[in-house]
Amino acid sequence: MDSNFLYYIFILVIIIVGVLVVKKIASCLIKSIVLVILAALLAFIYYAYFYAG
């Protein structure tokens, strides 16, 4: 049982470190990707709403 607990703690630490590294290194890239996805979604909604009917 102690082995499973240490495994989960290790995985949790790796996830936290991974999130922090991604936020520090690629925050601009992630923001750009989210912005492009939102723009594409808004364009899709616009065309679906105005040209569908």
Please supply descriptive tags for the structure shown above.
single chain, 53 residues, mainly alpha, 1 helix, 0% strand
Please give the structural blueprint.
Layout: H1 2-51
Query: Uncertain runs with pLDDT below 50, 5 residues or more?
Result: none
Please, how many helices?
A: 1
* DSSP strand count: 0
What's the rounded overall pLDDT mean?
A: 78
First-to-last CA distance: 61 Å
The proportion of residues in beta strands is under 5%
Query: What Rg, in angstroms, do the CA atoms define?
Result: 20 Å
The class by helix and strand makeup works out as mainly alpha
Helix content: over 70%
Q: Quick one: overall form? A: elongated
Please write the string of helix (H) and strand (E) elements.
H
Largest sheet: none
Describe the structure.
There is one protein chain. With 53 residues, this protein is mostly helical. It has one helix at 2-51. The longest helix is centred in the middle third of the chain and has 50 residues, at 2-51. The protein is elongated.
